[in-house]
Amino acid sequence: MSTKEKVLQFLEQHKGESISGQDLADKLEVSRTSVWKAINGLKKEGYQIEATTNKGYQLSIETDLLSEAAIVPMLSEALKDHRIIAHKTIDSTNLEAKRIVNEDPTFEGVILSEEQTKGRGRLGRVFHSPSESGLYMSLVLKPVADLDNATLITTAAAVAVCQAIETLTGKEPQIKWVNDIFLDGRKVCGILTEGIMDMESRTIGTIILGIGLNFRAPETDFPDEIQSIAGTLFDSKNAVVTRNQMAAEILNRFYVLYPDLASRSYLDEYRKRCFVLGEQVTFPQGSETIEAKAIAIDDDGGLVVALPNGETKTLTYGEISIKIKKREGK
User: Fold this and answer.
1) Closest CA to 270 of 232, 293, 299
2) Do 237 and 218 touch, CB atoms closer than 8 A?
3) Residues 249, 216: Cα–Cα separation, whole Å
4) In angstroms, rounded to a whole number, what is the distance separating the alpha carbons of residues 309 and 286?
5) Using CA atoms, how far apart are residues 197 and 82, in angstroms rounded to an integer?
6) 208: number of Cβ within 10 Å
7) What does pLDDT average to in each consecutive run of 10 residues of the chain (330 residues)?
8) How far apart (Å, rounded) are the C-alpha atoms in residues 11 and 9?
């Protein structure tokens, strides 16, 4: 870990407190000059660090830039050595994860970014990812034994995100099958699960789990095409938690569920939070649009729908996108 990273980690752990340059140097076992250079470097990156005579350096409690130094101390003990890579801007955290895996097939960890210039959702959709307003991260996973169902990973991730939001904010998010998190009737999070094939074994060797969370309202607002549906956890920068806290909580929650995905233990909570059940939905089938009633989530995470002719059909993660049919008078 570089001196700058050490200084940032210490300031993050003591956010709002002042410490002199000499004390900081002594605690980190580096020179005063190294501390001074590290502080200036962090300021240039956007960290709000106040320097006060006779008091020292203080990281403002309003600072909320995504960083490994801020996230790692909040991770569970089992994740303390997990790789965390944070960027200021990137095309897509999922694309970066794929590039890293192509270079190092053994890599496992998390890639985060303040901004995505080419954020992606399911079925080729664009995911609006402006700077400093969202939490955009991709988890690089090695498939657990006997699991080749992307829907289970997505449903577990949706549950983990909901649990993290509820724990830190007290708000009660809901899930639209299969990968969207809603709050107060608006979408605040999308999840994109992708697999990378191991060409030798012809099996999925790596899974990329992308999570995009609208944390606070962007300064320029959402594009016209999503203004009616997109929402955020918080209205402004006056959030009660930081994005680093939220990232750590999501990771802690997900990695409790991930090793035991095959048990399907999280599906009951997914079903309780899924607001699609009981609703009339439509989905494309060939050149037609089919209307059906969503009646259940099966044990593989598929959406079971009742068709007008009395038959049932199970929709799967990669197959389809549904729309909830508006009821008359609503």
Assistant:
1) 299
2) no
3) 17
4) 18
5) 23
6) 22
7) 88 88 91 92 89 85 86 92 92 93 93 85 64 88 68 93 97 94 93 78 81 84 69 78 94 94 93 95 88 94 93 82 66
8) 6
DSSP state of 19: B
Joined together, the tokens standing for residue 14 give 């003591």
Distance CA 95, CA 101 (A): 10
Location of structure tokens 């399911």: 122
Crossing angle for the helix pair 243-257 and 150-169, nearest 10 degrees?
130
- Counting Cα atoms < 13 Å in the Cβ hemisphere of 175 gives 28
Question: Could you tell me if 273 and 174 are in contact, meaning their C-beta atoms sit under 8 angstroms apart?
Answer: yes
Amino acid at 16: G
Residue 229 amino acid letter: I
Tell me the C-alpha distance between 125 and 230, whole Å.
14
Q: Is 114 in contact with 89 (CB distance < 8 Å)?
A: yes
Q: DSSP states of 50-91 as a string?
A: EEETTTEEEE-TT-----HHHHGGGS-GGGTT-EEEEES-BS
Name the residue type at position 242: T
Cis preceding-peptide flag for 126 (omega within 30 of 0): no
pLDDT at 329 (0 to 100): 46
Residue 298, amino acid: D
Cα 165 to Cα 154: distance, rounded to the nearest angstrom: 17
Give residue-wise pLDDT tens across range 211-265: 999 998 776 766 666 667 778 898 876 677 999 999 999 999 999 999 888 899 9
Question: Scanning the structure block, which residue is given the tokens 């399907």?
Answer: 264
Cα torsion 194, 198, 202, 205: sign: negative
CA–CA separation, 214 and 128 (whole Å)? 9
**DSSP three-state, residue 323:** strand
Cα dihedral 303, 232, 192, 73 sign: negative
